[in-house]
Amino acid sequence: MANPGYGKRSAPDQRPRTNDDFACLPPREAAIAGYIDRLPDGADISVKTLAKELIYGQCALRTALNHIQRAGHLRRGQESVTAADGSSRWITRTWFSRTARDDSWWAAFTRGDVPEEAPPERARPTRSRARILLAALGRISPALSLSEADCARLAPLVVEWFERGATEETVRIALTADLPTPVHHAASLLHRRLTTKLPPAPAPRPPLRILECAECSVPGPPEALPGGVCGACRGERSPARPDTPLSASAVQVRAGEIRAAMSLRRGEEAPV
């Protein structure tokens, strides 16, 4: 397995596995693709590691992986991930798809326009956490003391607050602030507040992804990397520079790509 957060990443929305998944590839490439397909997410699929497990050398594996990429089963790139403390960083990604994809699909995937599975890092809050919070309200305000049955009925509503990003402190303040005097029925009051004050569901954030050339690792937009290879590595001549300057938004996008590439290079050169 690769270091946590790295390694193989399965592309979403793949067809079920069959014996003919890689029939269009040459025998060597089909065998390597079938081996990678059966590895779990997070497995190290670098050339060095694959060479230790398979009968092929690093040079042959590098050539085969490039062929698998051109066939639409593989893309390499970088993705911005957010840590628990809110900080973000760019890390290397290698996406694999049992189902061959064309360049337009990979471009849509880079923009976040194809369905994705929920990230496994975010664990679903447990109901016990919600019940503990409800049971403790009586210590903050005796008028909000609840029975065990009341806590069991209200816990699913608290869980929904947690799923929408609310902290325990946020829930406590919403339930205990500006209480009427007297509180005639604590469970009914809390049910009403949990329902009427429920925060909106957070809007999904599109992923930040950059593909990179399989040959020289230069980052770029999917449109500049057909088959996962840049124009320079395909032998194309660079187009003449335009006379008009780039727009401010285009400069910002390109600067972000350069910073991501420099950050990645520094990480690769750092001593282990």
Please describe the topology of this protein.
Layout: E1 8-10, H1 27-37, H2 47-53, H3 58-70, E2 74-82, E3 88-96, H4 103-111, H5 127-140, H6 148-163, H7 168-176, H8 186-196, E4 209-212, E5 219-220, H9 248-269
Parallel strand pairs: 1-3
Antiparallel strand pairs: 2-3, 2-4, 4-5
Helix pairs in contact: 1-3, 2-3, 5-6, 6-8
What this model shows, in words?
It is a single chain. The chain is an alpha+beta fold. The chain folds into two domains: 8-116 and 208-269, no CATH class; 127-196, no CATH class. It has helices at 27-37, 47-53, 58-70, 103-111, 127-140, 148-163, 168-176, 186-196, 248-269; strands at residues 8-10, 74-82, 88-96, 209-212, 219-220. Strands 1-3-2-4-5 form a five-stranded mixed β-sheet. Strand 4 (209-212) and strand 5 form a beta hairpin. Helix 1 crosses helix 3 (58-70), helix 5 (127-140) crosses helix 6 and helix 6 runs parallel beside helix 8 (186-196). The longest helix is centred in the C-terminal third of the chain and has 22 residues, at 248-269. 20% of the residues are buried. The model is unreliable at 118-123 (pLDDT under 50).
Shape: elongated
Radius of gyration: 26 Å
- Span between termini: 17 Å
**Strand elements, count:** 5
Number of helices: 9
N-to-C order of helices and strands: EHHHEEHHHHHEEH
Sheet with the most strands?
Answer: 5 strands, mixed
Content of β-strand = 5-15%
- Structural class, from helix and strand content? alpha+beta
The number of distinct structural domains comes to 2
Q: What is the typical, i.e. mean, pLDDT? A: 83
Strand order, largest beta sheet: 1-3-2-4-5
Please give the share of residues in helix: 40-55%
Low-confidence stretches: 118-123
